[in-house]
Amino acid sequence: MTTLKITSLAAAILVIAACHSKKKTTADTASAPVKSTTGIFVPGEEELTAIKVKFPDATHEKLSEGHAIYTGVCTKCHGAKSIYRISEDKWQPIIDDMAKKAKITDSQKDALTKFVFSVKATQPK
Q1: Do 33 and 40 meet the contact criterion of CB atoms below 8 Å apart?
Q2: Total domain count for the chain?
Q3: 29 lies in a domain?
Q4: Residue 33 CB coordination number (10 Å)
Q5: Cβ neighbours around 124 below 10 Å, total
Q6: Stretch 57-79: mean pLDDT, rounded?
Q7: In terms of CB atoms within 10 Å, which of 9, 17, 108, 116 comes out highest?
């Protein structure tokens, strides 16, 4: 009987400690994008704010469209390339060249460009 009381007491202490934890919950991080080690993720507020320096007309919708193009049209012919591994100065010529090959519209190319550069702008050091 004593072992049961100790086990019950230990379980109660763990539950109380967990309830008072400062750990972020899903609700706390719902608006933050889940960032991958490759830079391929749906951009959030941080990326939008960062890219507005270079492209003031950028919107969440445009960045999301660019992500959809990157993870759809671009990866249809080849696997997804790490956005982080390619330097910013090399991205624009790649996008220009591949946009012609993929036959995407100027608007889609614009969305793709803004997506890639928003991720590059917030790349971890």
Answers
A1: no
A2: 1
A3: no
A4: 17
A5: 7
A6: 92
A7: 116
